[in-house]
UniProtKB/TrEMBL annotation:
Protein family according to the UniProt entry: Belongs to the ribonucleoside diphosphate reductase class-2 family.
Name of this protein: Vitamin B12-dependent ribonucleotide reductase
Region (Disordered): 1-27, 871-914
Stretch forming the signal peptide: none
Example GO biological process: DNA biosynthetic process
Biased composition regions of type Low complexity, renumbered to the chain: 893-903
One GO MF term attached to the UniProt entry: cobalt ion binding
Every TSCPD domain range: 744-848
Native organism: Microlunatus elymi
Function field: Catalyzes the reduction of ribonucleotides to deoxyribonucleotides. May function to provide a pool of deoxyribonucleotide precursors for DNA repair during oxygen limitation and/or for immediate growth after restoration of oxygen.
Amino acid sequence: MSETTRSDQKSQAGKEQTGKKLAGSAQQRGLRIERVFTTEGVHPYDEVSWEPRDVVQTNWKTGETVFEQKGAEFPDFWSVNASTIVTTKYFRGAVGTDAREHSLKQLINRVVRTYRKSGEESGYFATTADADIFEHELTWMLLHQFFSFNSPVWFNVGTNAPQQVSACFILSVDDSMDSILNWYKEEGFIFKGGSGAGLNLSRIRSSKELLSSGGTASGPVSFMRGADASAGTIKSGGATRRAAKMVVLDVDHPDIEEFVETKAREEDKIRALRDAGFDMDLGGKDIASVQYQNANNSVRVTDEFMRAVEDGAEFGLRARHTGEVIETVDARELFAKIAQAAWECADPGLQYDDTINDWHTNPETGRITASNPCSEYMSLDNSSCNLASLNLLKFLRDDDTFDAGLFSKAVELIITAMDISISFADFPTEAITKTTKDYRQLGIGYANLGALLMATGHGYDSEGGRAVAAAITSLMTGVAYRRSAELAAVVGPYAGYARNADAHQRVMRKHQAANDELRTLSSFDGDIHKLAGKEWAQVIKLGQQNGFRNAQASLLAPTGTIGFMMDCDTTGIEPDFSLVKFKKLVGGGSMQIVNQTIPRALKMLGYTGETSEAIVEYIAENGHVIDAPGLKPEHYEVFDCAMGQRSIKPMGHVRMMAATQPFLSGAISKTVNLPEAATVEDIAEVYREGWKLGLKALAVYRDNCKVGQPLSDGKAKSKDTLVEPEQKTEAVKVEYRPTRKRLPKSRPSRTTSFSVGGAEGYMTSGSYPDDGLGEVFLKLGKQGSTLAGVMDAFSIAVSIGLQYGVPLQTFVEKFTNLKFEPAGLTDDPDVRMAQSIMDYIFRRLALDYLTFEQRSELGIYTATERARQVETGSYLPPEPEDDEASEAESLKAESLSAGAKAEPVAAQTKVTEAEPVAPSVAPKAAHTTAELMESISGLSVDAPLCFTCGTKMRPSGSCYVCEGCGSTSGCS
């Protein structure tokens, strides 16, 4: 019996009391804690089997052992990866001494008992028995990986160090030298504690304004240099993680253009130094000479500015002290510069000021001006937030339904614990201490959304997938605020509530209205949505009676290191990274396995054991589902990932963020990844859509736009390809070179006339007898002109490439979306707009010669297919109506032709458990899932190497995380 089913049975009696049990006068005596996960009289530790493990961590680049601890005790169901990360990151005490923690029991006890003690001292529990249940329930959930607190809790709680529990901080800086120098100091203390900070520099006078002495001000960008150097120094000496910081500047600041272009110009410097032979890799010895690399930059834009961009109007830049307009700029030109800089180096991101403050529960205290480094925590200046994240896949029952009641009970308990932590926590400054204790901001969130959607047969970029995510997020925040109102009846509302009561209740009604507008598509998300509606009704009712204990309740963090601690397949709100995983084994070694959610997803979609097994084997070998034997094309979207042959399109990420944003107190840590071929306009479109869809913040990353990442990849590969000593003695060296396959004298061809932006031309394409494209000739311009000569030379180059085996798909990937004149309308009904002649030509060739599956990966469809998608939601034509026998024979024939055994369609309604496919040995060159995917797909993962163990990291939210040791590039 699964953990979820077992807990579900024990919680049935209490589900009807969700949101009601603690209402009324009985609350004044303290909370009554219900036993949901645990068994009375049995300690959670006694229910599981424990085993000792030797944890050894090696730097793959140097071969050096960087950590070793033998006999660490963990449950037998914890992965090697999870136990390694916990041992190296969270166990306290000097290694090799008796003071060193050696068991997960010690770690959980250290944290949970501190929470319990503080809760009892602060009057949270009605009786000692309730405190006992609280301790056991929290222990059980942590032990079974149902949730995790953020990393600073594991670093600090219960130790002799300051009890810093918050991962996210927002600072403030004024227009004075004392304030600026104090900013440097406060950031340093926050970085030292393993956390990150953000702030808005817009109060500092611009370089176009005068000082009181009559001189000209330096401007905020100049002061960023000192803060950047400070962060780089502390990053180098820190014991827990790299420094992480966010710098924000308002779009109406007179120095906004200098701020926007700051990091892009530094990236130019990096390229120049790299070409001159300097080591400019991320972490390289010469990178320290480059400035502004230790912070994420964001521009705070207003609705006024975005409307000016839409209208092509002028926009005023204002003096900091007087507010008068001292310069006007073309809004579109400024917006284009923002998009251009983001295209060049991924900075700046955008924060949408009016949306952020429209959902602000404490406007009477002050505006929200900044965020933490990953942009998910947005609240008052000089404040902090502690985080915790739930593992969504743990709440999926054996019958593939989501246990919304159990999820609600978990949220109740976690929010209670998070609020208790503020009572005993230490903070780096007096200002942060006061604001945090007065407003008690919390950030509950989740991980494993991508795995949950796949396991339940929902595509990440689909209406169904977005409905599920929205319903779960709404339920989570609703329960969190309902519990916050219940806590207010026991220990009082937050100190700043009285002056902000009307605003706070208005935001609660906005959340409730968003929940009412949510449209579900099935009973799966419908049941979650119904419970969420009940919770929001309770929030409004109890909030009016009691007020709220917390100014903020929820957000979606990256969950980098803690995601691995919980053995999650996916982090935060992210889709699955890939369909194959790199798994470490007990005793050393590693295996390449297919995601464990895939067989469950196939079962949910109705595939039988043999067909499912064939699909899983195909995925294990190819890393994707395209042409998998027996798998219907309409099911491909369920298995779309962040990387690979069917990677999720940028707007798919934006739409998922938009679906969940109305149900979050804070924002979402996520970077929208774009392919290397993406244009500046593509990035501008993402930023515009983010504003229109109501996001609070948005960041982008275009593959290979930064020097550090590709260089990291190159170093990893150069090491992996070193020849072993025994291989150096081989005398025979075999070289494989492509051979040219010439076209026959007589071959089929087609001639297409075209017009792009008024420029007319002809294209003749010749193919082999087996229909493979072999040559292209382009006629454009007058014979003998320079343009005609260039097109002839280009045609010859492409034709020779095709005959030497370069796939047409590669040409299409490289030449579509190229932007130059002539561009605009065409006379082709399938390609109505083209960004250039090349863009049109290769889109037309793709439509003529590539399969539907190949074109769909590139987002190229015929007019008929696009019309069908609008009408039916699918680009594919409907399957012909036929009797069961002929349909079964058709499927059987297709499967057998692909080399797999298939069952008749009628038999697919009998759901059986697929036999697990034996994992294969992972390539020796691969040390993480990112490197494994590179070896399978031949595509590079644009990510840096880990500073600790030298393996390639992978994206997690708006930063990177290492699967080998859990190190992050600055995630909370």
